[in-house]
Each structure stands twice: as structure tokens, then as C-alpha cells.
Amino acid sequence: MALFQQQHITWEDLPVPYRVVTGHVPLLVEELWRCRGADAGGAALERLCCWTGVAGSAEELSLTRLQQEEEQTVPPLRRRRRNRCLYTTPPVCCSICSDAKLKDPFSLAQKDLQNLYEEIKKLLVSKAELKVLCDYYFDGKGKAFRPMIVILMARACNVHSNKEGVLLPAQRSIAMISEMIHTASLVHDDVIDDSDTRRGKNTINKVWGERKAILAGDFILSAASMALARIGNNTVVSVLSQVIEDLVRGEFMQLGSKENENERFKHYLEKTFKKTASLIANSCKAVSILVNSDPEVHEIAYQYGRNVGIAFQLVDDILDFTSCANLLGKPSAADLKLGLATGPVLFACQQFPELHAMIMRRFSSDGDVDRAWQYVLKSDGVEQTNYLAQHYCQEAIRQISRLRPSTERDALIQLTELVLRRDK
Amino acid sequence: MAWRSRFSYIGRRHLSIFANPSPSNWTKVVSDAEKIVGYPTSFMSLLSDELSNVAMHVKKLVGTKHPLLNTASNSDLICDSMVIYPSQRNLAEITELIHTAFLVHRGIVNLKEWMNSDGPLKNMQFGNKMAVLSGDFLLANACTGLAQLNDSKVVELISSAIGDVMQGIYHESSTSAEEGSLTVASWEDQTFLPHGALLAKSCQAAMKLARHDTEAQNWAFQYGKHLALGHKLNSDLQLFVKSGSEPAVFSLDSAPVVFHRQIVGPERWRHQLKQVQNMARQIDYTKLWGLIKMERGVSQGLDLCSYHSNKALEAMKCFPPSEARSALENMAYALTKF
Predict the structure, then answer these.
(1) Domain for residue B298, yes or no?
(2) Angle between helices B121-148 and A210-231 (to 10 degrees)
């Protein structure tokens, strides 16, 4: 693994998409270095190195030259950079990679998650048709991604806090609550987006109508709120109530579009945080609060959740362009059809300024959706979004590595890999 | 069809839990209570820019027939009080937020039932979108407001009230008026959920916030429950009791109709419905109104209304005399006036 040293790079050197990503530009350089050989990776690396002044010019960095020099013991790039400093990769990363016996995160959390959906259904105390609606998505066919993260984070924090092998009932509750809040928001989103299918089934609004769908979503939310209150911890109640507000604000943010390209990206990342990452971040924070009073631990948990959450959504946005309809359980190019400009589109817009007008009118003109899709696939928008997602995962790993070692902590690190690699 | 008739009925209502289209007695009692409690403040202060953003979008609905317009065009204020803890004041605002959120969510239209006469489908879809978002926004603010009260028991109580209201409204939309399966007893249970739970539990919560004992909390709950049920009865009965008021439309789930159905029995009810329906199965409400007035459904409703008024008064007796208590008692008395 290449060792880089700290370099003073000014913020203004960087193009916008990289600029909005806080802090760890040098890590990004390292990531791109690792991806060299892939065309897009090489090109991006070139650009970034030029921008950061690491290399004298783009020519100095031609791929063939790099490949030749790789065979020598010390690549010239490294020699040139001896006097400059870039961020050192945390040694912990190396220890993870060398450990062959990594436990798959899903199986590690399996036992705790076993009866999760059954217990959620028990919290939804209602009768007749309403019960059917409420239970509709708690059929065990969902990914249970959020509860899994929450459980693993809880256990990792417990180890860190000298409570190894324990999972507090309240922490388990948080896992259930996070899934309930997530589901309630999905039900409402389907009405707002007028969606037909979700997870391979007809949506609640298609089967029972919009009105009942909204009421069912409200009911699930109220049940989550009750379960939250019963934990009896006011801080935890505040932390998770913030999520509910963020979810709604995220939806509102989607209603508006920004004129300025710079603002657009920032707006997109902020919206992504509110709609997806906030729930994961705050649930992680909540379980850490329940076992540990150190605010630094809460921050670690929060930052892990936040970064994984954003990466997760970025990959989701990529899949909208790259996967076929049947794999996902919902139609693709869905975001474009809803008038939303996500990561791949925003990156592509830098190469194809024609997209700018389409973004502003939310792809509402005839043929906009198809043309935009073509532009995106022609551009390196998908690759760029992928790199961004990788960056967020790196940050998540960096944060979680600050906790005491445990199988759960390692699983959380491995989980970031799964987030990046998923195809549905 | 059902949602529209129900909504135009509701559309005449104000946002407040207690508003009522006509009786001067009720309005006077409420405004006296407002004076005791102090100057009214709007819960809008709890909300921020998003609401003006929503208002801008809702303006696009002007000229359409989406029910959200009715709700949005009314506005209401909630009152503060002379000896009220800030947390209790916040609770009052939160309660109104929740109530408004449900009024808004109630107005969501089932797109499958859309007809050409409703105007362009796009308007209905847009209106739905706004209704969902606004309602969610209000509920989210209610949740964060509740969290700031720093009392998890209160959070649990009010959250359960949200669930109750939601269940109540859900079942209200489910029961078909023509099936007529509601009895008087089940009417009370079913009416409590959407119309009583929120008020009853907020009254209880207000006591809890000031650390009153469980007995006081229980009396507050009872007051809230009986006042709310009595008020619903009073509202439903207005149309049948006031002279010279022949309604264009009324809900077949309203109390006098439910009681009437139980009195005449399902066969006779079906017969009566046929009598008042034309070829297109549209009901002539004036005729139906006349039929109902001839039986004892209305008087049964009046009796029940008195019962709840008395139960509310009974609950208030357990509190020491004060201006506030008198105001609450006056509201309970006003339930039996028409």
C-alpha cells in the first residue's frame, strides 16, 4: 500500500464536487491511485493531481509511464513527493485486510434480527384492514439494512464501553424504531411520487388508495414514537425526533431546484443527508448514548452512520441509472422521471452543459428523460459518483476504527464494502 | 363519493377543536375562555420558512377543487393562559399542530375515485402532494416539540393519542354508511378515537407536566373525553334541532342518523334510503332529514349530549374553584344549548 505524506492543498484548488466533501482530499488521491488502470480512474487521477499540484503536468502522469515505473521499487511519483505530506492511511485498515476470517455483517446480526419484524408487528396494535396495511411491508422481505447497522453499532459500542457480549433491550428497540420510521416514510414517499411498486409488490396507495396509505404511515410513525418514549431516555427521544423532522425537510428540499451549479451539489448532498443518512446517523448515535456517556463515542457512531448513509444513497442513485427494472423491485430512471437530478446527472452536467437547462425544468419536456439518461451514460458521471461514495465509506471506516476492536466493529467496516458493491 | 360529501361537511368547520358554524352561546363561552387565558398566539410561530414555501405552492390550487384549499383558507389561534407553565403552553400548541395535521391528511383524495367533474387530475395529484407534505411537516414539528418537553411519559401519551386519532379516522373512512352496523355503544367507542382521544389525553398530559397526581390527571382526562364527545354530538345535532335549517347534505355517520338507524332497524332503514334516492342513487338529504326528525333518533342524541355534559361538569368539580374552572364548566353547559 502506498504511503503518502501530508500536503498543503488549498480548498480553492479543487473542483466543486470534491470541495464539498469535507477534509480528506488526500485520502481521495490515494483511493484514485488504487483505482489506476481503469480508464476513468486514471483520467480522474490525472485531473486531481494536476489540481492539487502533486504532478507538474498531466503528461508526467500518463498511465503507461506509471505502469512502467511500477516495476521499479520506488515509483517516481513517490520520490517526487517525499518532501510533501499527505495523510497517512490508518494502520488499522491494513490489519483488516490481512484478517481472512471476516464475519459477514448479515450473519453476525442475524440472531438479534431474527424476530425483529414479528416484534414490530406486535407494536402495531390495530385491527382489521388497518392491521393488514401496517404489516404489509414488515413481511421480512426488506433488506433490514438499517436495523443491522444499528445492532452492529450497538454491540461495537458496548464492547468499547466494557459491556462485551451484551445487547441492551433499549438498543434493540432503537433498531425496530429506525425500521418503523423508515417504513412510514416510504409509505408516504410512494404517495408523493405516485409509485406503483415497491419491493416487488404493489404499493399500499395503489391497492388501498392514497388516503388510507397516508393514515397507515401516520399510524406506524405514532407506534414508533410510543416505543421511543417507552425507552425513557429524553436525549434519545430528541435525537430520533430530529430524524422525523429531517425526513420531511428532505422531501421539501426536493421540491426546489438551485440555479447555481455549486449550490446544486451542496443542496443534493444536504438533501441526501436529510432523507437517508440522518436516520442511520441518529440511530447509531442513539444506541451509543444508551451505553456510553462520552460525547466522542456518540460522535464516532454518528459520523459512521452519516457517512455510510450518504454512500448508501449515492450508490442507490447510481443504480437508478445502471440497473434494470426487475432487480431493484422498482423502476429505474425513476429519479429522472420524478424530475430529480442526482449525483450522476450533476457530474455529467459538467461535461454536457446541455443538461443544465433540463435540470432546471426538471426533465419535464418530451424526450428529456431519455436524452439525460444518454448523457449520463456517455459521461463519467456514474464513475465520479462512485468515487464520491468510496470516499464517504473511507471516512466511515476512519471513524469507526477509533472504537475498540471487535468482530462487530470489523463487520461495520466490511459493511461499507457491501454498500459499494451492491447491485440492488 | 363518500369522501366528498364528508369533506364538504367538514369543510365548513374551522381548524380549532371547538369552532362551530352558528351558535352564539358556544362561541361566546369559548371567547370568554380565551380572555381568561390571555392573548391568543398562533402556532405558526413554531414553524418556519417551509410554511411560506408550502403556502406558495398551495396558492397554485386556487381554482381547483382539492379539499386542502378549504382547510388552508381557515386559520385558527390557540390561547395562552395566566398561570400556565411554558411546557403546558407548548403542549397546547403541539395539540393544535396534531389536530391540524390530521385535518390536512384527512383531505387527501383517492385518485382512483377521481372524476372529470373534479377538474384536471394533475391538480388533485399536486394537491395530494402538498397535503401529505404539510401534514407530515406539522406532525414532525409536533414530535420535536414533544421531545423538548423532556417528559417521556407525556411523549408516550400524546403519541398514543396520535395513533388513536389515526385509527379513528381510518375506520371512519372504512365503514360504509349503508351497512349501518354502528350501535350507540360502538358509536361512542368509535367516535372517541378520532374526536375525543386527542383532547382527553392532552388534558391529562397538561396535568402531568405540572406534576399533578394521577387522580387529577384522570379527572382532566374525563373532562376532555366527555367535552369532546358532547361537542361532537352537539355539532351533529345542530342540523336537526335548529328550526328552519334544512341541510343540503349531512354525514350518514352523524349521531342522530346512527341512532335513527338503530331505532328503525336495518330493513326499514334500507327502505327509507330507497325512498329518498333518485334513479342515479343520489340521496335527497332534505327528505331524509325529514324522515329522521320524525323518529326518536334526535331526542336520543340530545339525551346523550346532556349525559356527556354532566359527566364533564362532574369531572370539573374535583378542581378548586377558579376563573379557569368556571370557563371550562361554562363550555360544558354550552353543549346542551342549541
Answers:
(1) yes
(2) 10
pTM for this prediction: 0.78
Q: Which of A191, A226, A231 sits opposite B132 (nearest CB)?
A: A191
Confidence category of residue B16, pLDDT binned at 50, 70, 90: very low
Sign of the Cα pseudo-torsion (B258, B260, B263, B269, in order): negative
- Tally of structural domains, chain B: 1
pLDDT digits over A93-112, tens only? 333 443 445 667 788 888 88
What value does the mean pLDDT take over residues A19-31?
A: 43
Is the Cβ of B335 closer than 8 Å to some Cβ of chain A? no
Q: A86: which strand partners?
A: A6
| Confidence (pLDDT) at B31 | 84
CB A224 within 8 A of CB B146: no
Confidence class of residue A77 from pLDDT cuts 50, 70 and 90? very low
Q: How much helix, strand and coil, in percent to the nearest 5, is found in chain A?
A: 70, 0, 25
Residue written as grid cell 464520491:
A388
Assess B294–A contact: CB distance below 8 Å, yes or no: no
Give the integer Cα–Cα distance in Å for B41 and B16.
Answer: 13
Between CA A215 and CA A225, with CA A220 as vertex, the angle to 5 degrees is 120
Whether B74 has its CB under 8 Å from any CB of chain A: the answer is no
CB A16, CB A262: distance < 8 Å: yes
Chain A to chain B, count of Cβ pairs less than 8 Å apart?
Answer: 131
Task: Provide the β-strand partners of residue A38.
Answer: A36
What are B31's three cell numbers? 371567547
Instruction: Work out the angle at residue A256's Cα, subtended by the Cα atoms of residues A250 and A262, and round it to the nearest 5 degrees.
Output: 90
Side chain identity, residue B194: P
Could you tell me which residues are beta bridge partners of residue A202? A197
Query: Is the Cβ of A231 closer than 8 Å to some Cβ of chain B?
Result: yes
The Cα–Cα gap between A47 and B246 comes to: 78
State how far the Cα of A171 lies from the Cα of A148, in Å rounded to an integer.
12
Please, how many CA atoms are within 13 Å of residue B23, restricted to the half-sphere of its CB?
Answer: 23
Q: Is residue B219 part of a domain?
A: yes
Which residues in A lie closer than 8 A to residue B148 (C-beta atoms)? 238
Residue B134 has pLDDT above 90, yes or no: yes
A-proximal residues of B, 159-198, CB under 8 Å? 159-160, 162-163, 166-167, 169-171, 173-174
Find out whether A181 and A224 touch, Cβ atoms under 8 Å: yes
Q: Whole-angstrom Cα distance, residue B53 to residue A255? A: 10
Tell me, yes or no, if B122 comes closer than 8 A to chain A by beta carbon: no
How far apart CA A198 and CA A194 sit, in angstroms, is: 11
Question: Least CA distance to A228: which residue of chain B?
Answer: B156
* Domain CATH code at residue B287: 1.10.600.10
Residue B289 included in any domain: yes
Domain contains B329: yes
Model-level ipTM above the cut of 0.90: no
**How close B178 gets to chain A, by Cα (Å)?**
19
Contact A218 B150 (CB under 8 A): no
**Tens of pLDDT, residues B242-270:** 777 677 788 888 889 888 988 888 888 88
- Contact: A244, B170; criterion CB under 8 Å: no
Most confident of A300-314, A356-370, B36-50, B105-119: A300-314
CB-CB contact of B149 with B91 (8 Å): yes
- Compare A304 and B189 and report the one with higher pLDDT: A304
Q: Could you tell me the residue range of the domain that residue B241 belongs to?
A: 1-21+200-338
| A174-224 confidence digits (pLDDT tens) | 999 999 999 999 999 999 988 888 888 899 999 999 999 999 999 999 999
DSSP string, A215-268: HHHHHHHHHHHHHHHHH--HHHHHHHHHHHHHHHHHHHHHH---SSHHHHHHHH
Q: Which residues of A touch B139 (CB under 8 A)?
A: 218, 221, 244
Average pLDDT over residues B133-152: 94
